[in-house]
Design brief:
73% of the residues lie in helices and 0% in strands. The chain has 19 helices and no strands. It has helices spanning 2-6, 13-26, 32-46, 50-55, 59-66, 71-90, 94-101, 105-113, 118-131, 136-144, 148-154, 161-173, 179-187, 190-203, 207-223, 232-239, 242-249, 255-268, 272-278.
Amino acid sequence: LSNLCRGTPHPDMDTVWATVLALCGAISSQDEEVATNCVWALSYIAEHHAQMVIEGGATRRLVELLSHHNTAAAVPALRTLGKLMNHFVIEDDLQTQQAVLDCGILAVLGPLMSSPKRIATREACRLLSEITMGTADHIQAVCDAGLIRPLIDCLAMADDFRVVREAAFAVSNLTCGTAEQIGHVVELGAITALCNAINLAFVSDETRVIRVALDGLDGFLMSQPANGGENAYVDLVEQCGGLEIIEMLQQHAHPNIYERAQALILAYFVGRDEEEEEE
């Protein structure tokens, strides 16, 4: 069914709707294999028909599957919910975004962030990155759910840089929050974790992780208003050895990375030695 809905030519909307209704009913099956396969089907359909998946009534059952003992069902449920959130963030549909969150997603994400199944952790981080793309209220909900510290911990999972990349996306999105929210994230160690992630990614030549983490650092540094010429977050980067890491990236073979590193240094670090000497 999912392949038919993804195929070309696309089926008419009545057929897709009938398929969604059938799948939404089947995900409550007591047969775990049936339920898992149906959720995977919904994840594919949600990419182009997110509104239908919502209207079919799948959301609450998908959230229930996140705490299912069978990780095989939780992974496609995470992916489907991530696609739903992505669609409604892009559409700027705040009401539906909130309706999805009201089903209790954030309350069950914590254990998945530290799951021994890295694919579950990766999809959980991806879902959080979609949620944190929303409003400051959504970011606050993530903070209130106690998910910032587990998210930051995911930046150190060097055994799977796909997890690190998704976590870096989510942490970077947090820099669009309020000054108080950003301060809370920084207090929990986000800047140090991003710098460490860049260093690990450099050693392993994970360029995509480096790019995302550099964007995150830029977001934090840009968010800090100058107070008498001082930027406390710049100091944090220097204290954790981040400046040395960024300087090292100026020798990176990838043009996009060394250009970003140079831009960060020029924007935030050039002239600081002279200022400190004058003081």
